[in-house]
Design a protein that fits this description.
heterotrimer, A mainly alpha (619), B mainly alpha (299), C mainly alpha (488), A: 619 residues, 5 strands, globular, B: 299 residues, mainly alpha
């Protein structure tokens, strides 16, 4: 038995235990210990590590093998699952069960997702890949469907997308088999780049569609927000942190390893002016910008974060497709970074929901006074999401900006920065409407979230902070992933990168930043008169007197000025496209039903027979 | 360079920046006074103002985040100054670079936003919404310019950029090599400073309906300090990117003050743009100029 | 084993059907199941022998091409086993009264006998006879629900069925006129000279339409949704699951032995594609669970036609895989839909009352849309890789259609899952009957067993397809070359 077998068996056992004893008090502890052990096993696993099992189907071996690329994603998966299980383990899970929801299914589905993803990430050939792909999709569906009626509806919307993606991948799989005669990844690496251009383009279209759906790339992203937002807390965190990154994993395999980026650039559409590589870069760039500005308009904290999750995935793909050492390191590092702060953010939103019962950004405010630690988590989380120092989100985005600069892509660079700026606006609204401003009367008695929920949240932001200060810790694994994909490996230091054309040393930057804060604090607290805490009702109100029943909070339509300018650009085109597709489908369906409802089948039969005979005879 | 020298630099650079910033505020007021045919304030008036605000008896706090916001606003700039090379001192400029500097300068804005948000006054929040929108407006041309400059110099390292420009005198200055970008940069820096006609987000004329609504005493004093830093930082970034940086102190100071003087001389004759008009103006002219400049640089 | 047992495959159930009313007392209820077990036993014994050499029976010792020929290779053996066992699982154990029950059981036995006969028939005329027998039995069974709706639906079925039977007979006549024989092996020998022309193709097309009625072939399948929605669940299961497969098998034999022509394949391919399109899209709008399953069945059989159209063993392997998978899944779904028929709103929340049945339902649905590692995936994989290996054009179009319609299929099937696990306080879903749970449980067990042993089953499937595709061996086995000195 190899250590990969052990890893998968442990996940299989956790899944079974989750579905059977998930509601037991001891289960979260057990699952936590197992997940920790799995992280240990995975991190210390020599690579590449083949699984001891496998089988032969129709004369083709189906097997599993973990390499550095897969391990990078697998570590994040296990970490996200650990945080989710820990969060669910305490009061949150008890409340969930007390509401009559099925904790066993939640735990089972979560562990099942981990198992499916591990299988996917360790696949050694395309059949194993497809098995993992489908299992991931449907395990994800199971997790999404847990949160009640709205969640079920959102999950149902996911079905056509997931299925279309899976079928596109399957189509790509059989074509690959037809053209190369093999499905083994190690052989495909040599054979696929040699295929003719049109074949590569078709493979790109098919596989690309499948992966794009999972990733939530434009224009097939609409399913993701409701599906991720409506799932129960820990599930949302897990889904948002890692689930849709499986699409990126697929893109990594497809674009970098199989088709290769040089061949991708050969596939040009208009006389070498615009290549498939440009197309993907622009899709990624638009995926950064449009969903980010959609997030800006959300009034539900969960939806806001889910939209940002889509937006951030654009950075990852863009970095990967730029494909130089810096850019691809940035794209891959962003997967890890995003997982840490996004999970923390989602969990903090659900902690607030746990106490207030709402995620509506127009019915909260001022909660920092009651839930300071949750505020801290959200603050550090949004700094990461916005990509500002000192959190880790800054480092990965910096690498992507830097590589766009080096490669000379001004417009793409502008898109990435536009996404970041939009994110800053949006996340400020998030933290402002939740924690800042006026504390509502009904929230006077609210307590801080319980420790069982705080500890995972704080651990996640601590991780996001530490890997922001010392990105080298995570970049080691990124380098292994780069090497496994055949990308140039980015040399790094503990604090970032060292280059004569522009270094980044986060140790120093964060050092001076905190020194600056320290001096700022000295100046503030050490000098001048003593400040006095005043009540929130003791505020300037243009001569009016404030009382507890007066709403004195600005939350709705937060960026009114901005919306005056860009509001008309929100047209809902994608939603309309989706609706048009559904209508077309319905129309076709009623036509087809008309065939079966026809009143004179015998006559139709006669006509059809004559026509058929004519066709058979004269063709 | 040994560690002690570096630490001395790190301590000196913000101090110098603050001092210069104080004089920039003074110059700004003097220019306004000249335009409005007033005498203007005395030499140390900016310093008096700060001392006065800090010494006030009424210091209303809306809670820890209110305080921390001010700390972040000042502290962020203190950190930013150590990344900007000045004559004889490089600080940690070689460890951060232009991009990181641009993002570190957003931290004070975020601090301010947090502090104002905590005040539980919708007028303040509205002000912050406007301020962030303005940031969205002026940062777009700003990053285009950063891209162009960085591409032109082939480096993100400010020390490199300065050395590159100083190699051949004025002829190799960024402004001489990339005039279109330099103009665009001046425009976007103007917008960044939050002076007329771009001062909607500070709304100094009607303090009760802007971000400052709940700020008094040393809170306002902290923001005053922040403004000093901001003036210096904006000007120094511009000088470093386009005007050859600092060969020596006298020359550097002349450039710094000149760059601030240009927008200030224009500012006080303008009325004010509304938020959406700030977007429209800044997203049109400096962005187009910036893109044209980048195109010229790259071809 | 004596080849004459082949004759027992159709003969035993038919005999039992006629003798059933005569058997006294409680033993009467045992006649059917015992007969079916006996047939299954024969099939199981045929299986190993057919592996090495197909078995041929010349009834009455008239040497082929004269007389009646029965022929059993591995595929036939497999279908004989399937006929017996599936009929057993879908056996009518109860009826409204004794007479009704007798009738149902007799008709079911006739159906089983006819299906067994179709599996082992070696000449065209017998195919026609058994096919007609199956048709008559299925008319009777379909109308057996005794509701007005069922009778109207059956009437349409009868009209279409009889017209198409005429067409098939016409086709067979054409062939006979042209060649003077109806023996499949003999026809296979003569076909290249006499039937590979427009006349032969016309005959093929007419037979295709004739046999296509039961196989829910597009053009002649308009009866299916109504009949399946109104007949008893077990009857729908038998018709959609079992009878359709035997018709399919007969078409496949014709295609392999007599008409291995691109024109014939194209006809199958195009009609199959239309079947898939019309079935899946019609099901997309279906609000009645059983009608939805009926349309889905039409689409699945369309896929089977497409698969059989692929030349060579690859096509047969794919076709057999698709057909056998459908044989396992569809009857089980119809069984479960017995109580869960009607509109989706009525079954909202049914999973809480009947968790096991809901789980089974989900399992079958997942297999049907081809979620690996369930068998449905491997069938789809074979089908798609077979299509992809063909030159582009219609073949790839068919592949694209299958991929596309699977999405549609997933949507409407997941709607059922969504309803089963949804919440609606107004709905009062019925809980499942024990027979449905047990019946579908058996199918599920087989399905899972296949899923777990799929790598082991790939080889036998392939061997079966190779054997079936080898028309030269068929001819040589049925019509052994006359050696000098040996009496034929």
């Amino acid at each position: 038995m190899t250590s990969l077998d052990l890893l998968l068996i442990l996940s299989g056992l956790t899944t079974l235990t989750g579905f059977t004893f998930g509601n037991h008090r001891a289960y979260p502890w057990l699952a936590g210990i197992v997940l920790t052990a799995q992280i240990g096993i995975l991190a210390s696993m020599p690579l590449p590590m083949a699984a001891g099992f496998g089988f032969e189907m129709f004369g083709r071996p189906v097997g599993w093998q973990m390499d550095g690329f897969g391990r990078f994603f697998a570590l994040i998966t296990l970490g996200a699952a650990l945080a989710s299980v820990a969060y669910t383990g305490g009061e949150w899970g008890e409340r969930y069960a007390a509401e009559g929801k099925n904790l066993r299914w939640l735990h089972g589905a979560l562990a099942g997702n981990v198992l499916a993803m591990l299988l996917l990430l360790a696949s050694g050939d395309l059949i194993a890949f497809f098995i993992g792909w489908e299992l991931t999709s449907w395990a994800g569906f199971l997790l999404m469907a847990q949160g009640g009626e709205r969640a079920l509806r959102a999950a149902m919307r996911y079905v056509p997308y997931a299925m279309a993606g899976a079928m596109a991948v399957l189509g790509g799989l059989v074509l690959t088999l037809t053209w190369t005669g093999t499905l083994d990844l190690s052989q495909l690496v040599m054979l696929v780049p040699g295929l003719a251009n049109w074949k590569l383009a078709l493979l790109l279209a098919l596989f690309g569609t499948g992966f794009a759906v999972k990733m939530g790339l434009l224009p097939v992203h609409l399913w993701q927000t409701p599906a991720y937002a409506e799932a129960p807390g820990a599930a949302t965190a897990f889904l948002g942190a890692i689930s849709s990154r499986m699409g990126l994993f697929g893109f990594g395999l497809l674009l970098v390893k199989l088709i290769t980026l040089t061949r991708l650039a050969d596939l040009s559409f208009i006389d070498g002016l615009f290549s498939a590589r440009d197309l993907i870069e622009w899709v990624a760039a638009l995926t950064i910008v449009l969903p980010t500005f959609t997030a800006l308009k959300q009034n539900d904290a969960r939806y806001l974060l889910a939209w940002h999750g889509i937006g951030q995935s654009g950075y990852m793909l863009l970095g990967l497709v730029i494909g130089d050492a810096t850019g691809s390191a940035g794209g891959l590092l962003h997967v890890f970074n995003h997982a840490t702060y996004q999970a923390a953010l989602v969990l903090s939103v659900f902690a607030v929901m746990h106490r207030t019962g709402t995620a509506d950004l127009n019915s909260m405010g001022g909660l920092v006074a009651r839930m300071p630690f949750t505020f801290l988590v959200m603050l550090l989380g949004i700094i990461g999401l916005a990509g500002l120092p000192p959190m880790n989100g800054f480092v990965s985005k910096w690498l992507i900006y830097r590589s766009l600069m080096i490669e000379g892509r001004p417009l793409l660079f502008l898109m990435t920065v536009l996404g970041t700026l939009g994110t800053i606006l949006s996340v400020y609204k998030l933290i402002h409407n939740t924690f800042l401003g006026q504390l509502r009367a009904e929230h006077e008695q609210i307590r801080e979230a319980p420790w069982s929920m705080l500890v995972p949240m704080l651990a996640l932001v601590a991780l996001a902070f530490v890997t922001g200060v010392a990105p080298g810790l995570a970049l080691d694994y990124v380098n292994q992933a780069q090497a496994a994909l055949g990308l140039p490996v980015m040399a790094h230091t503990l604090g970032g990168v060292e280059s004569p054309r522009g270094s980044l040393d986060m140790l120093w930057i964060v050092g001076v930043l905190f020194a600056g804060f320290g001096i700022g604090a000295l100046l503030f607290y050490g000098a001048g008169g003593r400040s006095k805490r005043i009540h929130q009702l003791d505020n300037y109100a243009g001569g009016h007197f404030l009382s507890a029943d007066v709403r004195y909070q600005y939350s709705d339509h937060f960026y009114a000025g901005l919306m005056h300018r860009i509001g008309p650009l929100y047209r809902g085109s994608f939603t309309q496209m989706e609706a048009a597709l559904v209508s077309a489908n319905d129309l076709l369906a009623s036509l087809m039903q008309a065939w079966y409802r026809q009143a004179v089948p015998a006559l139709t039969l006669l006509i059809a027979t004559v026509l058929g005979l004519a066709w058979m005879i004269w063709r | 360079m040994n560690m002690l020298e570096l630490l001395t630099e790190l301590a000196l650079m913000p101090l110098i920046a603050f001092t210069i910033g104080l004089f920039m505020v003074l110059m700004m007021r003097k220019i306004a006074a000249k335009i409005q045919r007033r005498v203007g304030p005395p030499l140390l008036q900016p310093l008096y103002d700060i001392v006065k605000l800090y010494a006030k008896e009424t210091q209303n706090s809306h809670g820890l985040i209110h305080d921390i916001g001010i700390v972040m606003a000042v502290g962020g700039y203190i950190a930013a100054e150590t990344m900007l090379p000045v004559p004889g001192m490089n600080g940690i400029a070689d460890k951060s670079g232009l991009l990181a500097l641009a993002y570190v300068t957003m931290i004070p804005s975020l601090g301010l936003a947090l502090g104002v948000g905590q005040c539980a006054n919708p007028n303040g929040s509205i002000g912050i919404a406007r301020a962030l929108t303005a940031m969205l407006a002026y940062d777009v041309p700003f990053v285009i310019i950063i891209f162009g400059a960085s591409w032109f110099y082939g480096s993100n390292n400010l020390i490199d950029i300065v050395a590159h420009q100083q190699a051949g005198g004025i002829a190799t200055w960024g402004a001489a090599k990339m005039p279109v970008l330099a103009i665009a940069a001046l425009f976007s820096m103007y917008a960044m400073l939050g002076k007329q006609p771009f001062e909607i987000y500070v709304a100094p004329a009607e303090i009760a309906t802007g971000p400052m609504v709940e700020m008094g005493g040393k809170y306002l004093g902290g923001l005053f300090v922040m403004q000093c830093f901001q003036l210096f930082t904006a000007s120094a970034i511009y000088v470093t990117m386009f005007l050859g940086g600092g060969e020596n102190w006298p020359f550097f100071l002349v450039k710094l003050f000149a760059i601030i003087a240009i927008p200030m001389s224009m500012a006080f004759v303008f009325p004010r743009y509304r938020t959406e008009d700030v977007l429209a103006v800044v997203w049109r002219w400096p962005v187009l100029l910036g893109l044209a400049g980048v195109w010229l640089v790259m071809h | 084993m004596n080849p004459s047992v082949l004759a027992l495959v159709p003969a035993l159930p038919l005999l039992a059907a006629f003798l059933l009313p005569l058997v006294p007392g409680a033993a009467r209820r045992l006649v059917g199941p015992l007969t079916l077990l006996a047939v299954a036993f024969i099939g199981l014994n045929l299986w190993p022998m057919a592996q090495t050499e197909p078995m041929v029976l010349a009834v009455g010792n008239f040497a082929p091409p004269l007389g009646i020929t029965f022929y059993a290779d591995t595929v036939s053996a497999l279908f004989v086993i399937a006929v017996a066992l599936v009929t057993l699982v879908l056996w009518p154990w109860s009826g409204s009264d004794a007479g009704n029950l007798d009738r149902k059981q007799s008709l079911t036995l006739i159906l089983a006998g006819a299906c067994g006969g179709l599996a082992v028939s070696g000449d065209l005329f017998n195919v026609y006879v058994f096919y007609e027998l199956a048709a008559v039995a299925s008319f009777g069974l379909a109308a057996g629900a005794r509701t007005a709706a069922a009778q109207i639906a059956t009437f349409r079925y009868v009209v279409i069925g009889s017209l198409c039977s005429l067409l098939a007979l016409l086709g067979i006549t054409l062939i006979y006129v042209q060649t003077g024989t109806v023996n499949l092996a003999h026809l296979a020998q003569l076909a290249p000279h006499t039937l590979h022309n427009p006349l032969g193709l016309a005959a093929f097309f007419m037979i295709l339409l004739g046999l296509g009625v039961k196989a829910e072939l597009f053009l002649v399948n308009t009866w299916a949704p109504d009949v399946y929605a109104t007949a008893e669940a077990r009857v729908s299961g038998l018709l959609a699951g079992l009878v359709s497969k035997l018709a399919l098998l007969a078409v496949a034999r014709l295609l392999v032995l007599i008409f291995p022509l691109p024109e014939a394949r194209d006809a199958l391919l195009v009609l199959g594609m239309l079947g898939i399109l019309s079935g899946e899209f019609a099901a997309f709008r279906a609000r009645d669970v059983r009608r939805m399953l009926a349309w889905s069945s039409i689409a699945q059989l369309g896929a089977a036609f497409v698969a059989f159209a692929i030349p060579g063993p690859a096509g047969l392997a794919a076709g057999l895989a698709v057909a056998l998978h459908h044989l396992l899944v569809k009857p089980a779904l119809f069984l479960l839909a017995d109580r869960w028929g009607g509109s989706l709103a009525q079954i909202t929340g049914a999973a809480r009352n009947s968790p096991v049945s809901a789980t089974l339902f989900v399992l079958f649905i997942l297999s049907m849309i081809g979620v690996p590692p369930l068998p449905g995936f491997w069938a789809k994989y074979l089908l798609l890789s077979g299509l992809a290996a063909q030159p582009q054009g219609l073949w790839w179009l068919a592949g694209a259609i299958i991929l596309l319609t699977t999405v549609v299929e997933a949507v409407y099937l997941f709607r059922v899952i969504g309803a089963l696990y949804g919440h609606d306080h107004r709905a009062t879903p019925k809980s499942q009957s024990a027979t449905a749970v047990i019946g579908s449980g058996v199918f599920a067990a087989v399905l899972l067993a296949i899923a777990f042993s799929a790598p082991l089953l790939a080889l036998p499937l392939n061997r079966m397809a190779v054997q079936m595709a080898d028309s030269a061996a068929y001819i040589a086995r049925v019509l052994p070359p006359v050696l000098p000195g040996v009496a034929p």
